[in-house]
Every structure is written in C-alpha cells, then in structure tokens.
Amino acid sequence: MTDTTAADPDLTPDTAPDPLEPLPLLRRELHTGPLGLSSREAARRLAVHGPNEVRPTARTGVLGELLRQLLHPLALLLWAAAALAFIASIPVLGWAIVAVVLVNAGFALVQEQQAEKAVETLARYLPAQARVIRDGRPQQVPARDLVPGDLIALDEGDRVPADARLTEGGIEADLSMLTGESTPVERLAGPALEGEGLSLLQEPNLVFSGTTATEGQAQAIVFATGDHTELGRIAVLSRRTRREPSPLEQQVKKVAWLIAVVAVGMSAVFLVTGVAVGLPLTDSLMFAIGLLVANVPEGLLPTITLALAVGVRVLARQGAVIKRLSAVETLGSTDVICTDKTGTLTRNRMRLRSTWTPHGTPSGSETAELVRAAARCTTVTRESDGRLHGDPTEIALVEGAAGHAAPLDPADRDAHRRACFRFDPRLRRMSVIDAGEHGNLRVIVKGAPEAVLALLAAGEPTGEARRAADALAADGMRVLAVAVRELPPGTGAAAPRRQDAERDLHLLGLVGLHDPPRPEVAAAVRRCHEAGLTVHVVTGDNGATAAAVARTVGIGTPHLQVITRSESIDDQELDHLLRQDGTEIVFARSSPETKLKVADALRAHGRIVAMTGDGVNDAPALHRAHIGVAMGRSGTDVAREASTMVLTDDNFATIVTAIESGRRVYDNVRKFIVYIFAHLTPEVVPFLVFALSAGAVPLPLTVLQILAIDLGTETLPALALGRERAEPGIMSRPPRPSTQSVINKGMLVRSWGWLGIVSAVLVMTGFFYVLWRAGWHPGDPTGPGSPLHHAYLTATTATFAGIVTCQVGTAIAARTDHAALVDIGFFTNPLLLAGIAFELLFTAALVYAPPLQNLFGTAALPLDVVLLVSAFPPLVWGSDEIRRWARRRHHGS
C-alpha cells in the first residue's frame, strides 16, 4: 500500500490529506515525492533540523569526578597522613601531602576521561548507515544525515534510524526498548487511525528510532530525527549512568582497602611503640606519617584504567571493536569459542560450483532452468553502482545464473513476484510465487535438501537426491535443493498460505555453492589449541559441509563429532558431549535456539564462552555468552547491539588475536602491580629500623622523599609496563581460571618478599655505608649543628637514590613473569626506557639542584656512593632472573 500524500509531488500542503496531523511537524516539511528528496533539499533540511543524533545527556561534572578521586581509600590514607603532619606542627609536610593528593587525583581523572573517550570514539569504526532514496535512486548515507521527509528502506535485521511512517510494505518491529514488551509487533503501511485513542507508540504504521525490524521489508518517510524522536525525548530526560567497574577494578579496590587497613594498623602500632621506647612524640608522628605514605600505591587504579583503554584501542586497530573496557579482561580467560562457519571460518564469497539434476548428466537447458529458478527465489537488490546487495548465498545464485546464460534482473524479478515467504531458520527454506508470461502462477522453493525433499510430490527421486546432496556436501559445498510447483489456473490474485504453497513440489535439482576457508584461519585454530581453547562450530549448514570445512582448518583435531540433529538434542546429552575432553563439535543445522542452548550449557559447566553471530535471532545467544561477537560487515544491527565485541573484518583469526590481547593486558596489569608493590618494602623498612632501634639509628628516609618517589619516579615506568608486548608463550599456556584474583600469593611473595627484600637490603646497605664511612656509631647525634649532620643528609640521599635505582631493576624484572629478559629483548619497550630515563633525571635534579636539596633534605652524592647505587639495578634484576630461571628449570623437569 502506498502513501499518495507523501508520494505525489503535485499535492500541495494546503489540499493534501495529512495522516500525520497529530505529529508536531509542518506538512510542508514532509513533502516528499516518489523519488525521495533531492540532495540539495536534504542538505537544506539538515541545516534546519540538525544531525539525526541524540545529543549526549549531562554527565557527572569534573568537580564530581574529582571528588570521587579524592575520597578513594588510598587518597583517604594520604588525607590522614596530612592531618597527622599538621597535628605534629609540620605544616610544610602537610601541604606537600595535600599537593600529592590533588596532583594524583587530577592525574587519575585525566586517565579515566581518556579511557572513556577511547571507548566512545570507537563509534567511527561502526558508522551507522541508512538506506535512503534520494534523487530518485537508492543509496547508503550516514544515519546522522537523515532529515524529516527522507524516504528510507527497511529490511529484516535493520535498526530503524529515525521515527518514520511506513508508506509501502510492512515489518515486524521489536519495540521493547521503548515499550518493555518483548514480542515484536506488526507495522504496516496505511493511514493513521483517527479517533481510536491510540498513543503514538501504538500507531500501526509508525516505527521509531533505535528499534529493530525483525522481519519483513518496507519503505517509510522520516518525520522526526535526533532529539525530536521518541528515543531522543527519553534520553533528554535521563542521565547517562556511569560505567560499571570491571571485576579487575573491583578486585584492586578491595586490595586498596586491605592496604589501608594494614597501613593504619601498622602506623598505630608503631606510633605507640615509638612513644613507649622513648621517642619524642614529634618523631613518632613523623614515623606514623611515613608508614602511611609508604604504603599507598597512588598510581594503581589510574594505571589499570589506562591499560584497559590502551587494550581497547589496540584491538580496534586490529579489527575488533570492544564495547566495554571490562571485556578486555574477560577475553583473557576465554576458554571456548563457538563460531559460525560462513563468513567467519570461510571467506563469505560464495560461488556456484556444481549442479545436479534428477536426469543424471544435466543438459544445458536443464541447468539453466535450475539456476534461473534458484536466482528468482532470492531477495538481493542491485545498488546504483551495479553491485548486488543481500545475502552472500543469494548473490552467488544470481551471479551463477548469469554464468549459465540465465541472467536475472532484480527489478524484473520483483515485478513478476506475487508473494514472498522469507527464509525461516526453523523451516530452513524460503519460497516465492511468480507470475508467468500468461498469468499462470508458479511456486519456487529453495532451501536445505532435507527440508525441501520432504515436500516433494509422490514419485519424485528423493533417495537419489539425498545421496547426491551428501556427495556434494562431503566436498565442502553448501547444498541447496530447488523445487517448483505450477499453481492451477484460476488460483486468483490472492496468494495462498505458505503451507498450502509449499507442497507437492517437483524437484528441479541441487546446486552446490563453495565458500573457501580463509587462509589465516588454520593458523588461528592451531593457536587456539596451543592456548588450551576449545573451538565448536555452530552452523545452520549441512553437517557434511560444515565438517569438511572444520577439518580443513584444523577444528576437531584429534577428534571431531558432528551433531546433525542439533535442534532435538536434550540437555543431558548436550552436557555429556560438552564434558568430553579433547572433542570439538560441529552443531549442524542449528537454529538460533541451539546457540542459546549451547551457551547456557557451557556457562553451567563453568566455561568462559565467546559466541559469534550475525543474525537477528542470534541476539539471545550473544547476550548470554560472556563475549558476544558480532560481524561488522555481514551482521545485522540487532546482533551488533547485543554483542560485546564487533569484528570489522568478520574474521575468526581476529577473535584469537583479541583473546591474545586480553591475556596480554591482564598480564601487564599484574606486571605493574608487582612493580608498584615491590617498592613498599624498601620504603617501609627504613622506618622499621628507626623504630626498632629506639632512635639509635636515625631515620634513613624522609616522608618528602617518599612522596618524590611515589609521585615523581614511579608513575611513568608503571604506565610503560601497561604497554608491554605479549610475553613469549602467552598463547601456549591454558586459560586462566575466571575465579583467579588479579593479585595472588605468588605475586605478593615476588614483590614484597623477593624484589622488596632484596631492594631493602641494598638500600639499607647504602645508608649504613655512608654513615660508617663518616665514623658514625649507633646513638651518635645527626641533627642540625652536629658534626655528622652532612653525612646524615648524604646517607638519606643515598637511601632515596638507592630506592630509585632499585626501581629501575624492578621495572626491568617485572617485564616478564615467566620468560627470560633475553627472550623479549631489552629494547623492545621504548616507553619503559624513556620512563627510566625520566626518573633518573628527576632524581639527579633532587640530589644536585640546590633549591630542591633544601626542600627535600638531600645532599650531593660522592662518586663512590653513585657507583654503589648504580650497581643496584643489575643486582635486583639479576636476582629475580635467577629466581625465574630456577622456577623454569624446576617446572621443566
């Protein structure tokens, strides 16, 4: 049914009936002819109405974000330290700590905003397109360029780009995002229903921006765009919710609270101990402040956020668009991939390769009739540039028909079509009713051989056809059966029901379509197996065809099981199949419900599942999987909306690359946690020595020097470790358990108990070396005016410089958790080298620049002390290298 109001340019706004009268738009703005708007008129309306996009709603202000950073548990520790400094009448220290809190909060705020921006700007990788008729021809335009009055085309799986009124055809629309009703509703072209008391959302001929077409085809005129759509009105009234922290961030926050409790407890105990052993209250408070500050890893959370954001950006460049930061972490623990076959394992470049007819060797006329009928039972369209648009299988049929001297004109096909029963994944077939030259009607059915052969009339060669289909499928071809039926004269213009049309068919033959595997998939599957991942194929294709492709790319090594009755498999049998170690499965002739059932079963077994999908009905399974993977090129808008990750190249190898990147990001987070935690020990030990000696040993490190370490020298190397390349063998170890904490006992032993203790011993050695060289004995005064005061300043400076140089060794050691440094190369992380250079220059400035000497209580180091602390980096790194070598040797034996 066609809307003459919108289609006839001769109707003026004053005389034409306007079925959109209740809507807040002038009739003149909707005046559109059958050729659509002109490009110039569309540009003018775009200038008037603005782009078709919902403006971002208000966010939490910068001050609110800053306040959240200032109230973080680690920041609260520093606030407590600043308060103690003011209580102890040390205002310089108090203001210094306040400055550190503010600078660190500002840094964290910048990193979070950059991370959020990194996710938001990924929209450019998935440009929302709309099919619109302008200047009399169909074309693709960015959805943001739609204007009121545009004539748009909607097809199954499309997301509706703007509020519009159907003028031709009909669809089933999923309005759940606006109405909450999960059942799709029918929307048909026709006049508005006046006097029915219907709300706008109930109007039977209106569709709305952001909803999806789950079935059917239609044309519609846009009447509202941007903030004027129903979706826009809702967005204006709402506020964007903050992103949920990832499990990784939640774990680290728990650790932060643990650190806070430990730090406060240690400070309180040693404050009481210091007073009890006779230390002045001021010295005891200084000691408590030092413990608080030394236990705060200020850069931990912003560094984690930045590492995840960097992972998202890297994956986007590699063809995988991640929609949530936390998904990068989940990818690292994925242990099962459930993949489609067509377009993911294969090139999605179908070609007609073979035909079969019931009469043995087919003649040229029989083959031409077979491929012509198959091509007419399609819905592909021809774009303005001459290219075919539609399902790759149907494009192959149309191109194959042209190659067999039976070319098809889609416009002529549609002109003779009286009905179209679209492909039903449950029935596994589609059919059309065409009108012949003499007015007789003909039913053409194409689909899976078993689905079509079951509808043949008595006497048709079904057994012979099944054997031929099996032979073609065994060669890796996708097989379709094509059958026809002539409707009796006088059937009438009204098309029969589907079940009445699709019966008593005459078999024309079989067509074999070949879609070669992608050349890079075999190597990707090998990497999956080396990494301990299981790969299952869940496809709607024939079992023999899918098994042939699976074996070609290495799926099912050593054992492949093919389930040809996927729809009827029960939960108990499915559980038994999925529990078999070393077995990979091809679920053939699968419906979208099968995908959902497989995802549910794998989740129930504790597996972390990545599931691919591209169709409308794949959305439930994509939602259910831990990582829903949609196809960016061939996938529908519905699938992309439901997914966590979108492949811009539709390539299985990109999934494996994303899993490797997820593992790398997770490993890097653990690396810089080791690096940051390793410095807590050498920062705390000097205060313990001071307290346990009852002041006989002067304080080896000042609080301001700790702040200089944590703020000035630690942050850049930590950020650089977040950019470390993947460690050799990262895809040769099994997936990590999803329950594994990012911070475990082994990491704490390595950071606090090995790297930390080695660093603390070296640092205290440097401190005592300087004092003993000056003739110091325990209990000797070292305060201002004493003969040993300069030696004491030099000794504390040696402690400070020693911790910094130990940081260098720790950073180099933390680059690997398993491998030796020679395996990854010393110069492969230039950012880390730049960070090390910065911290050494920063340290030199604090040691040798007179203004900074006065502020931080440092003194110039003599050459022998410089040489001593210069030996610390190789000692720290070398000791950890020996530890890792011993561990590799132990595990290797």
How would you characterize the overall build of this protein?
- It is a single chain.
- The chain is α+β, with helices and mostly antiparallel strands.
- 48% of the residues lie in helices and 15% in strands.
- The chain has 34 helices and 23 strands.
- The strands form four sheets. The protein has an eight-stranded mixed β-sheet with strand order 8-23-22-21-9-18-20-19, with helices on both faces.
- The termini are far apart.
Low-confidence stretches: 1-28, 118-127, 238-244
- The level of helicity is 40-55%
DSSP summary, beta strand count = 23
Derived from helix and strand composition plus strand pairing, the structural class reads alpha+beta
Q: What is the C-alpha radius of gyration, as a whole number of Å? A: 35 Å
